Amino acid sequence: MRLDVVTIFPECFSPLREGLIGKAIDRGIVGLGLHDLRQWTTDNHRSVDDAPYGGGPGMVMRADIWGPALDAVCPDDALLVVPTPAGRRFTQATAEQWAQERHLVFACGRYEGIDQRVVEDAARRCRVAEVSIGDYVLVGGEVAVLAMVEAVVRLMPGVLGNPQSHQEDSFSEGLLEAPCYTRPESWRGLDVPKVLLSGDHAKVAAWRHEQALSRTMERRPDLLGDARTGD
Ligand SMILES: Nc1cc(-c2ccc3ccn(Cc4ccc(CN5CCCC5)cc4)c3c2)n[nH]1
């Protein structure tokens, strides 16, 4: 898979060079390209924004800068991902779909967002996904892209040491994950649940499912559909 990111803060993406994602890049499982949007500016101040038509707070990122950048970075067969608070929700299912893609291009906005015509124009030649990572407003798209890239790349073959690991991800079975424990067996008067020491895999699996279910009911009834949310 190839990943390209267009941003005015390329340095925000140095964390991708660390850890499992960094290893995936070093091993060629993932190709990463970082592109400074200001490369496509034309004025001495290298400005990328202007005042919003119709008034309102802050500034909007200019289509006449973003257009040439995406023309250069985003081919027609790529999926263009545009993080925005106004997007469809990015979920584990989204990550699983995108892990099948050959090329993802991420357009990181700042200020109050990107002129909507950039998305409209891009959609004439490639698939575009405007996505939100949660119901809160960040300062820009970079943190959202870091989160989505981690969620997608960890699903790719060869990235996680133990492929079993994402079989039991939260959400992969529609439930939150069960609690996890490791040594010491007793710590500050708190003991590991005895069933986990039993060696009885069926009992362990049953206990973990029950824990996942109760946690989900308590913390995320929305994941359980109408029956449990009292709708
Ligand atoms: N899940 C999630 C994603 C983001 C996100 C993603 C990209 C950008 C680019 C700029 N911003 C800041 C930002 C500030 C204020 C508004 C709301 N304004 C109200 C009137 C016009 C707009 C929008 C956007 C982003 C935020 N936040 N949260």
From TrEMBL:
It catalyses: guanosine(37) in tRNA + S-adenosyl-L-methionine = N(1)-methylguanosine(37) in tRNA + S-adenosyl-L-homocysteine + H(+). It is found in: Cytoplasm. Keywords: Cytoplasm, Methyltransferase, S-adenosyl-L-methionine, Transferase, tRNA processing. One of its GO terms (biological process) is tRNA N1-guanine methylation. One of its GO terms (cellular component) is cytosol. GO terms for molecular function: tRNA (guanine(37)-N1)-methyltransferase activity. Its EC number is 2.1.1.228. Residues 1-224 form the tRNA methyltransferase TRMD/TRM10-type domain. InterPro entries: Alpha/beta_knot_MTases, tRNA_m1G_MeTrfase_C_sf, tRNA_m1G_MeTrfase_TrmD, tRNA_m1G_MTases_N, tRNA_MeTrfase_TRMD/TRM10. S-adenosyl-L-methionine binds at G109, I133, G134, D135, Y136, V137, L138. It is an enzyme of class 2 (transferase). Belongs to the RNA methyltransferase TrmD family. Homodimer. Specifically methylates guanosine-37 in various tRNAs. This is tRNA (guanine-N(1)-)-methyltransferase. It comes from Segniliparus rugosus (strain ATCC BAA-974 / DSM 45345 / CCUG 50838 / CIP 108380 / JCM 13579 / CDC 945). The lineage of its organism: Bacteria, Bacillati, Actinomycetota, Actinomycetes, Mycobacteriales.
